[in-house]
Amino acid sequence: MTQVKSTMAGTVFTVNVTEGQEVTAGQVVIVLESMKMEIPVEAEAAGKISAINVQVGDFVNEEDVLVTIEA
Predict the structure, then answer these.
(1) What are the residue ranges of helices labelled H in 1-71?
(2) For residues 8, 63, 51 and 27, what is the CA-based torsion angle, rounded to 10 degrees?
């Protein structure tokens, strides 16, 4: 199991995956918005999305778990 965490505080701009979707390492799963900048958050490992913990518009802090990936 891999937890994809926020790299900074910001607002969830887009959620690019759905639960059950297969992803590859390096694939952008979430885009955060902070200070008018869009920051892509990538999957660190390949696998299936087992949980999405955020929605568009949610505020997240650095190190918050955004998505969980099962190998």
Answers:
(1) none
(2) 50
Rg value, the chain, Cα: 11
pTM here is: 0.92
Cβ count within 10 A of residue 48? 14
Question: How far, CA to CA in Å, does 24 sit from each of 35, 44, 47, 55?
Answer: 28, 8, 7, 21
Q: Which helix (DSSP H) or strand (DSSP E) does residue 52 occupy? A: strand 47-52
pLDDT digits (tens, 9 = 90+) for 13-38: 999 999 999 999 999 999 999 999 99
Second-level CATH architecture of 2-70? Beta Barrel (2.40)
* 8/40 Cα distance (integer angstroms): 11
Rounded Cα distance, 25 and 12, in Å: 20
